Amino acid sequence: MSVTDIRPNMDFWQERVDLAAAFRWTARLHMHEGVANHFSLAINEDGTKFLMNPNQMHFSRIKASDLIVVDANDPETLEGPDAPDPTAWGLHGGIHRHCPHARCAMHVHSIHATVLASLADSTLPPIDQNCATFFNRYVIDDGYGGLAFESEGERCAALLTDPKKKVMIMGNHGIMIIGETVAETFNRLYYFERAAETYIRALQTGRPLRVLSDEVAEKTAQELEDYPEQDARHLAELKAILDEEGSSYAR
How many CB atoms within 10 Å of residue 242? Predict the structure, then answer.
């Protein structure tokens, strides 16, 4: 049997494997929403062609070879047997069309991030190291307008033009995380959900919060940004666990 037989779609294979692993682990952490959420990864220079999960396929079953290629500049992408979900086209297509720095985009309705997005004040104060990671590095969308079809996707993309802001807290909706690579973006997604959980649980105590100063929060965020290879090692360890379990993600 040839390598091609084993791997039916060889284009951008390592990127496919990394993205498939991120899908599998997101499902394991119960951060997905049924079959409704989407991850994407740009595969051309301007970012307008990207890999994405197939329409309404559960994250826990996605394999590297399942990922479809979407062209943000070709509306005919929505036709045919491999058409993406229309809301995925609207939201991710808008981001990849207008935000070339967003090579990877991960959108979920994870519970704690969504609770944060449902508060009248969705800011995330730096009450611990994880929360400080995102100090001055997120944007809040206060203009939810319904399902993320094309016009809503264009509106959301306009909020992510600042390369420093790699998290969008989508009011009344969920979270959008962007980054350069799958490892960077997934790591950010993971830690944002952890930060949101810490904050929500702290609020539940009803007691005063211990909030870091702006200076310490910024220093901490910068130190974490400069921390060497933590994101790549995180994803590598998750893939190693999946491999040891005999997972089909890399097929």
Answer: 19
Question: Tens of pLDDT along 26-79?
Answer: 999 999 999 999 999 999 999 999 999 999 999 999 999 999 999 999 988 888
Out of 88-92, 112-116, 226-230, the most confident range is 112-116
Structural domain includes residue 51: yes
- Count CB atoms within 10 A of the CB of residue 27: 16
SS3 state of residue 10: coil
Neighbouring C-alpha atoms within 13 Å toward the C-beta of 101: 11
Per the structure, the complete domain to which residue 78 belongs is given by 3-244
Structure tokens that stand for 147 in this block = 């399902």
List the alpha helices (DSSP H) in the chain: 3-6, 13-28, 86-98, 111-118, 129-132, 150-157, 182-205, 214-225, 230-244
- Domain of residue 218, CATH code: 3.40.225.10
Report which secondary-structure segment, H or E, holds 105: strand 104-108
Residue found under tokens 């910024």: 218
How far is residue 77's CA from residue 86's CA, in Å, rounded to a whole number? 10
251 in a structural domain: no
Backbone dihedral angles phi then psi of residue 22, each to the nearest 5 degrees: -65, -40
The answer to pTM > 0.85 is yes
What's phi and psi for 124, nearest 5 deg? -115, 100
- Of the candidates 179, 7, 12, 195, the residue with the CA atom closest to the CA atom of residue 99: 179
Instruction: Give residue-wise pLDDT tens across range 136-155.
Output: 999 999 988 877 677 888 89
Residue 181 lies in a domain: yes
